[in-house]
Amino acid sequence: MPIYHKLGKIPQKRHTQFTKPDGSLYYEQLFGTIGFDGMSSLLYHVHRPTQVSAIGKAVDLSPKIAVEKNIASRKLIGFDVAPKDDFLESREPMLVNSDVHVGLAAPKKSMTEYFYKNSDADEMLFIHKGTGTLKTFLGNIPFEYGDYLIIPRGMIYQIEFDTEDNRILFAESFHPIYTPKRYRNWFGQLLEHSPFCERDYKLPQDLQTHYEKGEFVMKIKKQGMLHTLVYASHPFDVVGWDGYNFPYGFSIHNFESITGRVHQPPPVHQTFETSAFVICSFCPRLYDYHPKAIPAPYNHSNIDSDEVLYYVDGDFMSRTGIAPGYISLHPAGIPHGPHPGTYEASIGKTKTEELAVMIDTFKPLQVTENALKIDDGTYYKSWVE
Ligand SMILES: [Fe+2]
Asked: Phi/psi class of residue 268: alpha, beta or left (left: φ > 0; alpha: ψ in -120 to 50)?
C-alpha cells in the first residue's frame, strides 16, 4: 500500500529499546515483501512472534485441474457454489495459472477457532454479499457489499461475518497487488487523473492487542499446502506499528469511471495491477457522447491474455443471459465481443448501471473441476446467429 499508516504505540526511533510498563522489551518485527526492497511495516509485539509450539498435519489445497489447455469461452454460474460453514473450506478455485488462482466462496461462519495467513499469495477478496470485519494483527477493517479487500502475503487474519449469507470472489496472487503505477506520481501520491484517491481507502483501524499466552491454532498456506501450527502466544499481540505494508479496503462504488466521446478501452477501468494480471472495475457510468457513438465495446482479440469477468449487479450491456454471480471466461486465441443484438441496441443509450469485476491474466488459465461443475457448457456458441 503506497501510503504511510500507523496505529498504536511505537518508539520514537526505529530499532531502539521500546519498553513495556514492567520494564521488559517489546519485540520488533520487520514485516516486508520482496526481500528488503518492497513495502514494509515495523511491528511491536508483546511476545516473541517466533514461538511455534507444535506442527500438525498439512492438507493439500492444490486446485484439481480439469482442463489444462482451454480454448472454450465459458460461463460459470457462480451462485451455484454451495455455501459451507468454514471460510477456507468454502473457497473453491475456478480458473488458475501459476500467477493467480481465481475462485468463489460462500462461507457461512466467522473464523473463530483459528488464525490464518497465506504466505504464498496476496489475497484480493471482493465482497459481493455480506458484511463483517476483517480482523488482522495490524487492525480491523469493516467490510460491506462492493468492497475489495487487499491482504498482503503473510498477513495474519480472521474474518468475521455478520450473517450466513456471504458471497466472495477471490484472487490469490503470487505477485504483489498494487494500484496502477500510472495513477501515481513519483512520490507515490495518486494523481488527479486517477479514478480514486487516498481518501477512498479503508485503512486498518481499532488495533486490539491481546496479551494471552497459550495454544493458538495458526493455519498457514504455503506451496499449496495448508499447514496447521500452534503458536504459544496470541497472534494479535501487536501494540503498535507503522509503515506501508498492511491490508486495506476499497469500495468498487468509489471507482470514478473515466468516460469519453467514443468507447474507452478496458484499461480506463483498471483498479489494481500485478506483474501478471490486472483487476478492473466496470461501474455505473454515462455512455460515450459522440453523436454517432456505439457504447457497446468493439470485438476484440485478447491475443495475449485470458479475460475473466465477474458480474456483480445491473444489466451488463454487451451480454445476454448473464446474471449476478456469473463468471465469463474469454480465453486468448479467439476474439470476443458483444452478443448479437447488444451492439445495435446500445446505440442511443445514455448510461449503464452495470457493475462487474474483470481479471485479465497474461498467461492462459486452467479450468478446475470446481469450475466444470458450474459451467453452462454452451456459452462458447452464444455468438452464433
Ligand atoms: Fe473483453
From this structure: alpha
